[in-house]
């Protein structure tokens, strides 16, 4: 009898299997990768690098990386110039076009090729739509937990209502407090279930300015009269329709503007929110799908003049249960991220310290159908 193969033996590729080559693997990376030659010039870039730097490969190749992202910290620049030195730099500010982007950067020398190295860059505070299902396991856990909690909550609420009918009038407030707190927890659980939901609403041609104005109206009606925050619109009237789910887009805008309003109230000056729309041509803002840069040319930016996001939370604002608010639940931006991903869009944030502004930027695909 022939002996059976060990369970730990590698399984050979099946007939007809085709493994992706190195070029396909590099093209599929969701972080920017740049190959630098021995003279310090860019030799190759992947699609994510084109998207991050806002320039095509043809324009990047043959130029110096420092000229594309500088000026840099002098220590980082020195290490990048030393071709045989490895480098890891975190929370590095680079210039891309007219704006500032914060990245984590690595430089790895290539053995056997003196002076050559591979540089990788990943944007901080950037939610990449390349993985629309990314984090689904993490978000699914709260949904399962929510389902298990709802049944006993219903029983507690029923007991509170029954007690309210039997208790003396002076004690009814205690029973009402039980009911109110159960309702509050139930609303929180509903939001948790929204995060774990895999259902995606249909997308269609949508006028982004109508969605913005509807969200502004909803936010104003829900705001207290004493909230002293101005809202200014800077719209591009020629903007084409966006491909989105109208209800989801409004919910995203309401959440972002509500956060901006709360932040602006903490600035110590008159609060101001600016809602700006513009069309971004080329591949400056793209999602990476199957190794290809997919343009997201419709940009909606919500800016506020508040104090900004705490540096300790900057990289985690889109994660569940992360909040800078004393009474915050940390689910608002997680829900925003999910809804944006469901619409094949992208959400990111950055801080302009010179202007004292925090920007949340929403990028969505253009509808192929005019309204």
Multimeric state:
single chain
Cα-atom radius of gyration: 25 Å
CATH architecture of the largest domain: 2-Layer Sandwich
Supply the CATH superfamily name of the largest domain.
Histidine kinase-like ATPase, C-terminal domain
Strand content: 15-25%
Total DSSP helices: 10
Q: What's the N-to-C terminus distance?
A: 72 Å
Binned, the helix content reads: 25-40%
* Contiguous uncertain segments of 5+ residues: 1-9, 128-139
Attribute tags:
10 helices, five-stranded antiparallel β-sheet, Heat Shock Protein 90, alpha+beta, Beta-Lactamase, 15 strands
Can you characterise this structure?
This protein is α+β, with helices and mostly antiparallel strands. Helices cover 35% and strands 24% of the residues. Strand 1 and strand 2 form a beta hairpin. The longest helix has 31 residues. It is elongated. The N and C termini lie far apart (72 Å). The N terminus is likely disordered.
Please specify the SSE layout and strand pairing.
Blueprint: H1 22-27, E1 32-36, E2 42-45, H2 47-53, H3 57-60, H4 65-69, H5 74-81, E3 87-96, E4 99-109, E5 117-123, E6 126-127, H6 136-166, H7 172-196, E7 204-206, H8 208-222, E8 229-234, E9 242-244, H9 246-264, E10 271-279, E11 286-289, E12 292-295, E13 298-304, H10 332-342, E14 346-352, E15 357-364
Parallel strand pairs: 8-10
Antiparallel strand pairs: 1-2, 1-5, 3-4, 4-5, 6-14, 7-9, 10-13, 11-12, 13-15, 14-15
Short description:
The chain folds into three domains: 103 residues, PAS domain (Beta-Lactamase); 61 residues; 161 residues, Heat Shock Protein 90.
């Amino acid at each position: 009898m022939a002996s059976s193969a060990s369970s730990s033996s590698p399984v050979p590729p099946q007939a007809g299997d085709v493994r992706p080559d190195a070029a396909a693997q590099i093209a599929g990376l969701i972080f920017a990768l740049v190959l630098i030659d021995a003279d310090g010039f860019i030799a190759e870039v992947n699609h994510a690098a084109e998207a991050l730097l806002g320039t095509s490969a043809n324009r990047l190749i043959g130029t110096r990386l420092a000229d594309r992202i500088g000026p840099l910290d002098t220590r980082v620049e020195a290490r990048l110039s030393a071709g045989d030195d490895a480098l890891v730099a975190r929370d590095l500010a680079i210039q891309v076009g007219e704006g500032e982007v914060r990245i984590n950067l690595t430089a790895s020398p290539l053995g056997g090729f003196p002076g050559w190295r591979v540089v990788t860059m990943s944007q901080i505070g950037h939610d990449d739509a390349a993985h629309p299902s990314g984090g689904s396991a993490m978000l699914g856990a709260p949904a399962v937990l929510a389902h298990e909690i709802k049944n006993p909550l219903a029983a507690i609420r029923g007991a509170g209502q029954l007690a309210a009918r039997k208790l003396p009038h002076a004690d009814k407030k205690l029973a009402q407090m039980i009911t109110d707190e159960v309702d509050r927890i139930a609303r929180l659980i509903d939001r948790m279930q929204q995060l774990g939901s895999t259902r995606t609403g249909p997308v269609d041609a949508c006028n982004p300015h109508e969605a913005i104005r509807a969200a502004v109206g909803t936010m104003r009606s829900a705001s207290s009269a004493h909230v002293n925050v101005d809202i200014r619109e800077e719209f591009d009237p020629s903007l084409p329709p966006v491909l989105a789910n109208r209800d989801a887009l409004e919910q995203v805008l309401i959440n972002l503007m509500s956060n901006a309003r709360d932040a602006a109230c903490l600035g110590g000056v008159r609060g101001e929110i600016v809602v700006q729309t513009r069309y971004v041509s080329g591949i400056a803002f793209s999602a990476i799908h199957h190794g290809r840069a997919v343009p997201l040319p419709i940009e909606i930016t919500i800016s506020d003049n508040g104090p900004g996001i705490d540096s300790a939370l900057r990289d985690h604002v889109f994660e569940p249960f992360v909040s800078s608010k004393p009474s915050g639940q940390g689910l608002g931006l997680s829900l925003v991220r999910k809804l944006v991903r469901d619409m094949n869009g992208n959400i990111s944030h950055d801080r302009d310290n010179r202007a004292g502004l925090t920007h949340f930027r929403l990028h969505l695909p253009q509808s192929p159908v005019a309204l």
